[in-house]
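Anyone able to model this chain together with zinc ion?
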Amino acid sequence: MSPFSAILQVLFPTTCACCGDVLVRGERQVCLRCLSDMATTHFSPMNDNTMERRLMGLMPLEHATATYLFRQGGAVRKAVHAMKFHGNAELCLMMGRQMGLDLLASGRFDDVDVLVPVPLHWLRRLQRGYNQSELLCRGMAEVMGRPVCKDAVVRHRYTHQQSLQHESQRASNVAGAFRLRKADRIRGKHVLLVDDVVTTGATIASCANTIAEAEGVRISVAAFSMAQ
Ligand SMILES: [Zn+2]
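re: yes, here you go
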């Protein structure tokens, strides 16, 4: 470390987005200990994986995967929290690149044409300053070389934070929450729908069913994480 960067490190320490420890040289956003604590699912190359079984029957589906397992108190949960509520856009991009590598290595998502983030309501996007799923897409796009389309579908209903709700309220809460805006952007294409966390699958299925209104689309799903 140069004397200048050593001084910078003391004055403006960069800390791990998950545990808050000061990052050492070579670490970015998340420390190596937290990175190794992030449980990977190994779903991507697997047909009929847990994610596919969760979504099957809720929406028309080609393939689905989630790169990490979301556990209470775990490093993945902390990373999601940092992406969603702490304004950590750089972390979103970095985790998107991880997802992209995971999908590329599986070979099951090679014929995807376009990446579509699950949209936020405009008011929530304004509050947060960005859509974390859109940034995940941008990170994935760097690795996968596919375009990101963020205006094909919009969320026209402002819904309350899912995590604060009872399981049974989720489905009714998000039914009809999305609307097709620019169907021509996705018509006839294989769409990869991207979100940060999939829990019951109600939100992503509602969004997917709206996308399915566009003629000739096929839909796959990639989530950063899946709650058990
Ligand atoms: Zn850490």
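Residues 38-227 form a domain with the Rossmann fold fold (CATH 3.40.50.2020).
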